[in-house]
Amino acid sequence: MKLTILSTSDVHGYLYPTNYSHRTDKEDYGFLKVATKIDQIKTQADADEWVITIENGDFIQGSPLTYFTAKKQAKYRSIYSQLTNAVGYDAGILGNHEFNYGLPYLQQCEAKRNYPILAANLKENTGDGVIDAPYKILTHGGVKVGILGLTTQYIPHWEQKEHIVGWQFESAVKAAKKWVPILRKQVDVVIVAYHGGFECDLATGNPSERLTGENEGYQLLSEVHGIDALVTGHQHREIATICQGVPTTQPGEKGKYIGAIELELNEHQKVEKQLAHLISVADVVPASKFEKLTTTLQTKVENWLDEPMGKVAGNMKITDPMKARMYGHPYLTFINQVQMAATQTDLSATALFNDEVLGYDSTVTMRNIVNSYVYPNTLVVSEITGTDLKQALERCASFFALNSNGKVTVSKKFREPKMQYYNYDIYSGINYAFDLNKPANERLIALSYHGKPVQDDQKLEIVLNQYRGIGGGDYSMFQANKIVREVQIDMTELISDYFAKHPVVQAIDEGNFYLKK
């Protein structure tokens, strides 16, 4: 028998093949394409081929469409389970972003699915009923396959406390050590589906990031014996390989690829051959049976995105993202301005999250707002010292590198194992400068606040997004115990509210940051 394991991960609500930059945008990704391709593969499968499908998490958050269903039109929240039911998934896994809009949203999005949510390392003690089991056993043609579900244990480090009240998170490796042997005794093939990635280089085993427990994929394969296939996600990487003898995949983001693992079983139901690859959906035309499920919602989303919210006097369009990170930009100044207004502070940091952020047109629409600020971040105000601020700025300075020609590039630590634009911040309320010719942790050459040099023991209040405020992105100088107040309204709403109060916003080139190279 041939066993084909198809997986999706980190679709982030990109159902249609669009990035929503404009109404007629067409992209080579999206869940409608994925659903169509999976349907084609199932239909074309040989008589002795068994196709198993797994949705590996981060499905219901991340796009303008998910924001619309979370904040504007709750009646459309069933669309996610309608689509996954139509695909016919055998199992689903929770991603970390499944919790971003709170448990009621998660429950409503998952309420009508006809497949189980598996999570062996998560426990819900509140009776929410989202998790169905740690694993599921499937049987076909005399072959038994077990699917074990795991999710990154690091969720409490990012998520708002009220979104995970009563939930417990443990190491994926610890859970796998308990459950894989139990499954191994009952089945012929063990599949581990993990919404997490790899903390080490897949070829050498050398750490590729700080070993926090966020990603335990390599350790899973090193320490847990009896896994026949590993499905991963979370990092948005495109991986298809054999790692430590186990075929593993990670299919990127937004439905660009389907992860595919093929196992050939002999007459004793033992794996004889194995293959891992990614299936592109770029050329797939979405089938009408999937598209019709979402047509009404998609039209409402597009109409909502075109609603005008305010105007910009000057230019807030981003045409060169790298230049914006090197010298600042009026759009980033504006985001800091919104953060400071919402928290009554005069020191703020924000990031240009990715190179698809376009900034604002002269007439600002909801499309501009939700496409430029892509995360459902809330804000925290932290009391820090001058030393904390200097350490944070040195972390930012390490984002840059000079190549052999003296050109400024992104340093390796922010490029591998994936691009981390969201972990480099631009500050407002201070004047500062970096010298890229100096070694790491010595690049900050100027720093002043209200025109005076910042002292190491000086107390400062700074507004940050919640992810950064608890140390996300390896900013250990920011910690939860330094938070003095919070604003529990996500940034997209705060930006919209700001335009309601200030219908015309001036584009300001702050000029408070200098980069010496």
Task: List the SSEs and their pairings.
Elements: E1 2-8, H1 31-44, E2 49-55, H2 64-71, H3 79-87, E3 91-93, H4 103-110, E4 117-118, E5 122-124, E6 135-140, E7 143-151, H5 155-158, E8 167-169, H6 172-184, E9 189-195, H7 217-223, E10 229-231, E11 238-243, E12 246-251, E13 257-265, E14 271-280, H8 288-305, E15 308-313, E16 316-317, H9 321-327, H10 330-343, E17 348-351, E18 359-360, E19 363-365, H11 366-372, E20 379-385, H12 386-397, E21 400-402, E22 408-410, H13 412-415, E23 425-428, E24 430-435, E25 444-449, E26 452-453, E27 459-465, H14 466-469, E28 483-487, H15 491-501, E29 504-506, E30 513-516
Helix pairs in contact: 1-3, 6-7, 10-15
GO molecular function, one term: metal ion binding
GO cellular component, one term: outer membrane-bounded periplasmic space
GO biological process, one term: nucleotide catabolic process
Beta-strand proportion: 25-35%
- Give me the secondary-structure category: alpha/beta
The main sheet comes to:
6 strands, mixed
Radius of gyration: 24 Å
* Mean pLDDT across all amino acids: 96
Helix content: 25-40%
